[in-house]
Amino acid sequence: MELTTILFYLFALVTLGSAVIMVFSKNIVHSAFALMFTLMGVAALYVLLYADFLAATQLLVYVGGILILILFGVMLTSQGYTLNFRTITVNLVPASLISVAAAVLLIFAFLSTDWTISEVAERTDTVYDLGMLLMGDYILPFIAVGVLLLIAIIGAILMSTRLSAENNGAS
Amino acid sequence: MLEVISKETGNKEMVINMGPQHPSTHGVLRLELVLDGEIITKVRPNIGYLHRCFEKYAEQMDDYAKVIPYTDRMDYVSAINQEHGYVIALERMLELEVPERVEYIRVIMAEMQRIASHLLGIGAFGLDLGAFSPFLYLFTEREKILDIFERVTGARLLYNYFAVAGLMRDVHPEFKTDTAEFVKTFRPKIKELNDLLSYNKIFIKRTANIGVLPEKVALNYAASGPVLRGSGVEWDLRKNDPYSIYDKFDFEIPVGTGEVGTLGDCWDRYMVRVKEMEQSLRIIEQALDGMPDEGDVMEAIPKRIRPKEGEIYVRTETPRGELGYYIISDKSASPFRVKARAPSFVHLSMLPAISKGSLIADMVAIVGSIDIVLGEVDR
Amino acid sequence: MLNAVKQSWLTFRSIFTGMGVTIRHFFGPTVTLQYPDEKMELPKGARARLYVNIDDCIGCNLCARACPVNCIDIETVASTQDVDLGKTSTGNPKRFWLTRFDIDMAKCMYCDLCVHPCPTNCIYMVSEYEYSEYDRSNLVYHFSNLEPEMVAEVKDKAEKEAEQKKREREEMMRKKAEEKAQKELEAKKKAEEESNDKEKGEE
Amino acid sequence: MTEYVSHIHPVAAILVHAAIPLTIILVYALVAIWGERKIAGFIQDRLGPMRVGGWHGWAQSIADLLKLIQKEDIIPTDASRFLFKFAPFMMFAASYAAFAVIPFSSAYVGSMVNIGVFYLLAVTSLLTLSIIMAGWASNNKWSLLGGMRSAAQMVSYEVPTIASVLTVVLVAGSLNLMTVTEMQSGNDILGFLPNWFIFQNPFLIVAFIIFFISILAESHRVPFDLPESESELVAGYQTEYSGMRWAMFMLAEYADMLLLSLLGATLFFGGWNSPFGDFMAGPLWGFFWFMLKGLSLVIVMMWIRWTLPRYRVDQLMHICWSILIPLSFVNLVLTALWEVIF
Q1: Residue B137's closest chain C neighbor by CA?
Q2: Strand B30-36 versus strand B39-46 pairing type
Q3: Residue D123: CB atoms within 10 Å
Q4: Can you say whether residue D190 is alpha, beta or left, with left for phi > 0 and alpha for psi between -120 and 50 degrees?
Q5: Which residues from D are below 8 Å from B364, CB to CB?
């Protein structure tokens, strides 16, 4: 077997396994760390697809950024600083119905797609292409997203400063 | 205790134990901190880990002189100063005349000890704030003082050197030159300390405006020593209530100025100590000049110490503040009661008042800046 | 803005000043003493361990009484009349066998208080400081130079002498008591006679 | 050499490629830990380790390592066992993986990817996560506080680091560190100065200062060593660790220091280029120069460590968010303008 194939199955196993742990773990922090393994596995799969820029972005943004935010959120909002962040199961019936429906949909899509299997993709300089696309064809949406994020940041700053000002006034 | 606090706060906040085994509690102080995030909402000092029943033990000694080694062990960083207060109290009780030479040697030793103690306090303070090297530089200087002390007394830390109306042994012939040499080499080191630590911007950021102790609070808590002077009160028992021969010397009382922050912050308390070392050097120089060369330091020591029935309170200025001895005599050979008013204990009691609302890191700075010695707090 | 620049400049300057100090120390001399290889010379009169020159000890127990922590344990036996223990180097006559002179250095607090009352200056501090032990009981120093048999012999002798003395004393006491009784008897007789005389006189 | 191995077996080639940085890290860590103690000793008028190995105790780190291997493996009862065990390895893996794109010499770089710098920054962001993991899994309050602190610190300081790195990328026009290094060869500036980026453009000096401050914070060195500030948080996230796991943290920390210093050397000081043009150039000399530059930065970091006190956590954040980040972005724009004009 090719080395890449072995690696593919390995990373797929890591991704799926940790995803399962993430869903079924009772402890939120454990779930969060399982999510980290899932995201890293996906990044590794990107690398196998020669999408190295995407893989690095995945690591930087999801693992290095969003996951840390999730962890901060869990730890700051929960009661006390203990190991016992427990999840409880609510809405068992509707949730399982929706997930079964989603699974059926995905499997249907998976089976009905006409997959074309190509030879190994050529390794190209993805950064250059990405840059040209973002700054060329998709310049408008790119700028729009930028402005949106800026507005969100300003809003967040405004909210947090007002909150802290109120706190100061109260104390 | 822990449960009580967590009940009060309804489990919303984190209770954390700083000490008794923590790198920056200067011994075995245990602080219960109630934290909201990293902000301290409540502090409760728990003391007593080093309690040795000094006061009770003094009562069952069959001789007043046997208590002196125990006074050393109260504030083991400035043992000479602890002895000084006790022997002065006994001398006043017995109405004894102390030879002049003895007084001069005592003052030199006490001021040297003050420098040694401040060196340790300042060094440990810097260490608390993460500056490691100044600590060791200052320790090197302290070693030199201890070397001088070892030649004089034979011991390096707990001396038992002062006796009632005398000294346990005479100084060696080179004492004057040794001490003068130390004074000469030590002056530039203070400048170096100021370069390295005192006026370092990071250090100022960590200590200015932190743990502000207003004058009024300081007075209400009966603070004394550098802690009180750091709040701008010019109060030094060596000047305000002179004992020994301190009225003969010309020196200033450094007070906090709020130079880089608010008056009475950690930096002011720190700086008062630095400036006090310079003043101590001045006193030592004058005392070295005035010290008589001849005279038996042991001749006036009484054979038996039997004070008249009565009581006395004597306060002296130790490096940490006002150390008071309250002694009651019932005419027997042993004291009926010895009570020590320890400055560290008093200063520790105001910790909750000045550290509320600060961060854990500030807590470390505040504890360091009031410079407590747990041997004295617990006695 | 200008203020911020100035503050940053001051911060950098203070940092560089500090770094200048440390680099000077980097190339400066070191003060470390490589302990087991080189040792510090303790000054004369350093208080590191108690030592007793047992030949000079007269067993007066003053040091044990001066000790605040009771770390000195002395047992003495009076010498018999036939033995002369000699004199100390200071000329004080020795009158006691020192059957035990133990100092528990684990208890000692090096306060020097036992040294001063000694009339013959035989107990003093020496600058020997490397005497740590694995077993605490090894820190009890036995200064008495008497062999156990000797101790037993001395004790036996002293006991015998004491017994003899006691007997002598008892004898003396008995004699005294007898004399006293006789005297009393005589006195009684005398008194009786006197009273008789008086009665006679009254009659 | 690597090409020769790849003829034998592709997996062997990969392993050899991977083993070279690992060897460098391990040897460096042994030397650096000893060196740091020596530097600390001399700065503080001491001698530092003197006993093991004869000359100035050079074998001290090896002795320490042997001691740590023999130590009892302690895991707190209530710790989250898997995460507790996993965290040190993940931390080391993260800093080790980042070495893949560092061009050690003109003849050797682990992986010639085009996104070199970007990959490096992405992989090092895993360090943050492993610290949170260690802090949380220990089930110790001090560890947790240390972990949270360092996470906040590293996430924040990633921004000025990236911005200052971007400044160089802007000038170089490439993310590939090998290309960036090659662009700095030659001695053209003022006739004698090497073509290093730090000499090319005044704004890059500012960028370097920002970068250096940021890497001090990223690798937890004084004055930003808050995660493990011993006087406040005992030992931060490492409090409950002992033995080999603790050694892994130590190793990762020193590896991180070297990594960021080498990155700085690559970006600002010409990487493996000799400062004397063609004199003393070549693959092996290149390696020598590169390590010399990187280790000089490491030594400066140590020198700073033994001089300064540390900042408080809010002051640290203040420096990052209201000084370094705006400054680095302004600097980025000004550099771009400079590049356009000249």
Answers
A1: C25
A2: antiparallel
A3: 25
A4: left
A5: 231-232
- The answer to whether B86 faces chain C, any CB pair under 8 Å, is no
Give the pLDDT confidence score for residue B4 in this predicted structure.
39
User: Could you tell me the fold of the domain covering C50-150?
Assistant: Alpha-Beta Plaits (3.30.70)
| A133 and A155 part of one domain | no
Q: Which chains, if any, share at least 3 CB pairs under 8 A with chain A? A: B, D
Q: What pLDDT shows up at residue D124?
A: 84
Q: What are chain C's partners, defined as 3 or more CB pairs within 8 angstroms?
A: B, D
Domains of chain C: which residue ranges? 50-150
Amino acid (one-letter) located at A118: S
Beta bridge partners of C170: none
Residue spans of the domains in chain B: they are: 2-46, 54-377
- The topology under which CATH files domain B54-377 is Cytochrome-c3 Hydrogenase; chain B (1.10.645)
Residue A53 and residue A16 share a domain = yes
User: What pLDDT is stored for residue C136 in this prediction?
Assistant: 87
The domain in which residue A50 lies consists of: 3-137
pLDDT per residue over D66-89, tens digit each? 888 888 888 888 777 888 888 888
Residue C19: pLDDT band (50, 70, 90) is confident
The residue among D211, D240, D237 whose CA lies nearest residue D151 is: D237
Give the model confidence (pLDDT) of A24-72 as tens digits: 887 777 888 888 889 888 988 888 887 778 888 888 888 878 888 888 7
All residues of chain B having their beta carbon less than 8 Å from the beta carbon of residue A79 are: 11-12
Q: Indicate the residue type of B237.
A: L
Q: Looking at this protein, which amino acid is placed at residue C146?
A: L
DSSP single-letter state for residue D319:
I
Chains adjacent to B (≥3 CB pairs closer than 8 angstroms): A, C, D
Instruction: Say if C and D touch: at least 3 Cβ pairs within 8 Å.
Output: yes
**Cβ atoms within 10 A of the Cβ of B63, count?**
17
Asked if D304 has any chain C CB less than 8 Å from its own CB, the reply is: yes
The verdict on a CB contact (< 8 Å) between D50 and C34 is yes
Q: Name the burial class of residue D167, with classes exposed (0-12), middle (13-18) and buried (19+) by CB atoms within 10 angstroms of its CB.
A: buried
**Count of all residues that appear for chain A in the document:** 171
For chain B, which ranges sit under pLDDT 50? 1-10
CB contact B96 to D (< 8 Å): no
Q: A164 and A99, same structural domain?
A: no
Distance CA A54, CA A56 (A): 5
Question: Do residues A129 and A163 both lie within one domain?
Answer: no
Cis peptide before B20 (omega within 30 of 0): yes
D175/A118: higher pLDDT: D175
D43 at the C interface (CB within 8 A)? yes
Name every chain D residue with its beta carbon within 8 A of the beta carbon of A68: 128-129, 132, 151, 155
Burial (CB < 10 A; 0-12, 13-18, 19+), residue C51, is middle
Chains A and C touch (3+ CB pairs under 8 A): no
Residue B2 touches partner A, C-beta closer than 8 Å:
no
**Contact of chains D and A by CB distance (3 or more pairs under 8 angstroms):** yes
B189 in contact with D, Cβ within 8 Å: no
pLDDT recorded at residue A151: 94
Determine whether the interchain pair D310/B360 forms a contact, defined as Cβ–Cβ distance below 8 Å. no
Q: Residues A94, A112: one domain?
A: yes
Can you give A15-70 as a three-state secondary structure string?
A: HHHHHHHHHHCCEHHHHHHHHHHHHHHHHHHHHHCCCHHHHHHHHHHHHHHHHHHH
Instruction: Judge: C4–D308 Cβ closer than 8 Å, yes or no.
Output: no
| A81 in contact with chain B, both atoms CB, cutoff 8 A | yes
Q: Give the minimum alpha-carbon distance from D330 to chain C in angstroms, rounded to a whole number.
A: 14
B335-358 as b/e, with b when 16 or more CB fall inside 10 Å? beebbbbbbbbbbbebbeebbeeb
Q: Of A72, A76, A81, which to mutate for an interface test with B (greatest number of B Cβ within 10 Å)?
A: A81
